[in-house]
Write a structure and sequence with these properties.
This protein is of the alpha/beta class. It has helices spanning 3-16, 23-30, 34-46, 61-72, 75-82, 88-107, 128-139, 143-146, 192-199, 239-242, 257-270, 290-297, 305-309, 314-328, 334-349, 364-371, 375-405, 408-429, 438-457, 461-546, 557-562, 586-596, 627-651, 677-683, and strands at residues 20-22, 50-52, 56-59, 117-121, 147-149, 160-165, 168-173, 181-185, 207-210, 213-216, 220-225, 245-249, 573-577, 601-605, 611-614. It has a 5-stranded parallel beta sheet with strand order 5-8-11-4-12. Strands 1-3-2 form a 3-stranded antiparallel beta sheet.
Amino acid sequence: MTPVERVEAAGRWLAQAGGSALRRDVGAALGVNHARQAEVLAALVAAGMVTGTRLEVRLTDAGWARFGGVEQVSAGEVLDRVLDGWPYTHRAFLELLVCAVIARHHLGAQRREAHLGFIAIGETGTGKSAMGGLVCHLFGLPGPLHKMHVPAHTAGSMLGRRVQDADGWRFVPAPVTRLPFVMLDEFDKAEEPVQRRAWLFLDGSLDQQLEDQVHELLPTPLLTANPPRSGDRYAHLRQEYRRRSVVLDTGAMAGRSHELEDLLGRFYATAAATDRLHLDALVPPAALDASALEVLRTVRHALTPHGAEEFPGLRALELATLGRCALLGDGADQAAAAYATGVAYLQASESVPGQVAEGWIPDLAAVHDALGADAAGIAAALERGRAGRRQAQDQAAAGRARKARQDLDVLERGERLAERCRQAVAAIDGRKVDPARKAEAAGLRRVLRRHATTAAQVTTASGLAEVTRQAADPLERAGRLLAVVTTDRDAAKRAKQEDAEQDRNARQAAKAEHSRARSALAAGRRRDREELARAVAAARPLEALYARTTTRPGERPLDVLRDLRAPNGEPLLRYTAAPASDRARGWRGVLETTVLGSAPGTWRVAGSGAVFTGTLHTCSELMQWGAGTRAVLAPTLDAIHQAEDELRSYLGAEERRRPQVATRAGASGTHPVAMLPAAAARYGLGR
């Protein structure tokens, strides 16, 4: 083989292997040594056909175009071949899941919302996890990397973790958030906080708020869960996420696990590299035409009112249809793809009772007439559905006939014993067993499963008595083990709840105290602003008088000043008559003092030692606006301005324009500032 032929062979082998492989596997497939292997891969990398790491290589878009184009035309045939033999509800569910993976992988950058999630609920052995494994096989995805055992995670590890670097703490998304597909297995056995985080995968939106940033959730999710042992079968499933998902109840396969085991055993024993879908090469169209959308709108008419409430919507089915178009290849009939998608959705949904209307299946002749050559695959799907329903009816009839021939009492008691054993196994599976007891728990599970199988098949009273005797001791030991595990779990849960309650109470108390402090601070600042407003209001008329230097004819400043009051009600000027010895005697003194008011006396300025000589009606220094009147106004204005300045400084308020007040030299005494009680109390004014 020439070097060129080796490069060609390596590229085609990679395409058949799903587009990626270990470097050593490429060399093994070509049958060359390490040096030749390195040369071939180096040539592919240099040509832009391959990229990769030190251990693994992967085809680029150019590589797919070069080596994978021929096989991708038959991708739909590959899917049909791989799903051959599956129950029709499982098959319809898997078809939708594969289409959704393709659509989300290629169209997620433009279509950020309304992507389908997938939920499979049913008993153990009914094919839930097997479907996830088959999807990984189809796309060549490593199974362990794409399967999350949900109970093994915590709420903090499901989607990522917090790490600390030089810039502080930040959230780093988990690698699983970048994968094209993820199976969330054993969801029902996880703790409730973990379940809440797992539900985010089924939100339908690629953009999710994780911690303090928006991150992408790229994978199409498959969530698997066992139903509760009693009560509502779908109690684990939150309604808001059921409406965004396709729900498959696998309960019809309960007791038929051997059928799936045989099917999967045969498939994986003969699976070839051609049984793969090349995800990067399956590029869907960007949108559907009007005729295809009109077909999808008819799906709702086949649903019951309850089914219509859980219908994920036209946009979600449109995306799945676009993925199906990629499977069908270039030139696919979009209306036929939409019809097939609608049929698959209805077939999967009718596994849940009450979702799909009776008699919804269309006549095959009408399908052929409407779709022509493109109807073959759809007609086959419809026929599989009819055959599956007939098989279920036949099995039910056979079971009824068998029960009629057997001792009903023995069957019922045997089934009750089998259910007790199964419930004990499920209870052990659902508990976190202490490492010291794991060996005991594993042994009990094996014994109880065997007794459950025997009890379910017993047909005679003697056989029932024997299996009852043998199962008694394992059931008793399982009860003791569960009691111990439950007690430990409940104690840990109570301690956790008590710690959470204490933390919550402490946070609430701190929050309340912080709120009270803020309210008190706000009230104090509000009172100070009101106090500042009163100070300015009191100062403005006095400032206007202080600024005056011109006296109008007939105006008497003394009359104005003696009528002024400080905000505390005290007069700015107080007149004191001269002692009796200084006044005129006799009738003249009486006349001057009481009638004429011309007896000598003094005018004293409040808050100052300033004194003016005059009479009750006259004072030469205060008969004109000027220095004398300013001396009267200055002490009061100065006190108000001091209080105003303190308040402005405390509040951070801007200063205002006002006259500069000069108090008389030698002034003494304490000016009353009762008109600013809050300021006086806060800043010690007037002391």
